Amino acid sequence: MNYKSLKSIVFSLVVAFMVIGFQSCSQDDEFSPETVKTRAKPVVTIAADSVISSSTTWSSTNDYLLQGKVWVKAPATLTIEAGTIVRGAYNQDLLKASALVITRGSQLIANGTATNPIILTADENHQFKGGWGGLVLLGDAQINQSPNQLIEGISTGEVPSGVDATYGTNVTTYNNQSSGTLRHVRVEYAGARIAEANELNAFTFGGVGSGTTVEYCQAYYGADDAFEFFGGRVNAKYLVATACDDDAFDFDFGYQGKIQFAVATIDAAQSYSSDPNGIECDNNGSGTDVTPYTHPVLSNLTIVGTSNGQIAGGGSPAGYLYNGARFRRYTQYTLVNSVIYGYPTGVWHNTAQSSTDSITIAYNVVASVPAGNEYVGFAANPPASNNLIRTATTLILNNPWGNPYTTNALKPIGAPANTAGYDINAVDSWFDDTEYKGAINKTGDNWLVEGEFDGWIRNW
């Protein structure tokens, strides 16, 4: 054998081993795209009870590990660069659960992109519901409780000296206040519980003002609510709640913000709380007639349960989801242009508010499983204003039980879902004008699928 032939064989073997090695590494690292992308990044550890009191940037060249609660104190701004991963360490003492808390007067600028999202998650050894606390934003906007409430999920004994962990006022002065920007942000495995019915959520907003930007955010497998709003006026578009333990969207204490384009889905193989709802909305916990009334304005939501309303554990009754939407305890609400199905009860009107200026429910399409409980508590079933009853197969969606994060499932392809509804844009120009019901555009411009392909939405 001549030298050139030997050299050629050796070169071929080297290439083959390189390919085999590369494939092997790819299989070993197949935890998740973000794990692989950032394995070589240095980890910056942030000590428990750290207080950020001057403007700080967390760089995408690093990963960050929160060893406990980290507090951003006024007037500081914390900027998290696009593509940054922040992990919260697990603590068996849930009072000391890690969390990122943006206190009143400070700001968080978390401006991710579709291809470079900002990910807040549990540490790699505790990727389960409640593996860490979550993200908390606090502000001075109006609430219907006494001012300076302590946010749910945080104990006074765990707040460092000099840090104000309260939120909310009784005046309108701060309703337009900004707590910063959340764009293309995903919060995973959050919701550590410090006591019964006292948990952190994936995203917690306490008295947050309408100057805050919240767009393209996903709550993924959290142990309590996906998005909870305690008072305030913050608005949001393009929200995704994926298999969170309790409610996808929870409103309380005088919240009066606006939400458009939101999707909630359930993983039937998981266990959930004792009363898992797509929407839970209260004026306050005791249902008292206090102002400002809780009144979310909701348009173009798609809330999906399961094909038989059942789940692996938890529920009300046990083994079943509860309500697609439950409005109770003296709340007001506007719910229009939305599609709700796969829950034993569709929309439950369980509130003393009934005047025409306090309730607007129009052009919604609801299917309960079993049929017959689509609109409960209303004088008529369905209530007036073109609300419709359908089965899941006659909504009509492309694939009502398909995976919405990887396909065009949930896309409206026939009446009534693909027909025009309530002209919410004419009422309030903040809302986009739509010619369909639910969160997914009938034309094929599916922001869910685009999000998954680009990276900001995590598929289950």
Walk me through what this model shows.
10% of the residues lie in helices and 31% in strands. With 460 residues, it is mostly beta strands. The chain has a 17-stranded parallel β-sheet that branches. Strand 15 and strand 16 (198-199) form a beta hairpin.
Which word captures the global form?
globular
Average pLDDT for all residues = 90
Spans of 5+ residues with little confidence (pLDDT < 50)? 1-38
Report the count of strand segments: 32
- Report the end-to-end length measured between terminal Cα atoms: 55 Å
Main β-sheet description = 17 strands, parallel
Helix run count? 4
Please tell me how large the radius of gyration is: 23 Å
Helix proportion range? under 10%
- Category by helix and strand content: mainly beta
Strand content: 25-35%
Features:
single chain, 460 residues, mainly beta, 17-stranded parallel β-sheet, 11-stranded parallel β-sheet, 4 helices, globular, disordered N terminus
Give a nutshell description of this structure.
The chain is mostly beta strands and 460 residues long. The protein has a 17-stranded parallel sheet that branches.
Draw up the topology in text.
Elements: H1 3-28, H2 33-38, E1 43-46, E2 50-52, E3 56-58, E4 63-66, E5 69-72, E6 77-80, E7 85-88, E8 99-102, E9 107-111, E10 118-122, E11 135-138, E12 149-150, E13 166-167, E14 180-188, E15 193-195, E16 198-199, E17 203-206, E18 213-220, E19 227-230, E20 236-242, E21 249-252, E22 258-265, E23 277-282, E24 297-304, E25 323-328, E26 333-336, E27 339-343, E28 345-350, E29 359-362, E30 365-368, E31 375-376, E32 388-389, H3 424-427, H4 447-454
Parallel strand pairs: 1-4, 2-5, 3-6, 4-7, 5-8, 6-9, 7-10, 8-11, 9-14, 10-14, 11-17, 14-18, 17-19, 18-20, 19-21, 20-22, 21-23, 22-24, 23-25, 24-26, 24-27, 25-28, 26-29, 27-30, 28-31, 30-32
Antiparallel strand pairs: 12-13, 15-16
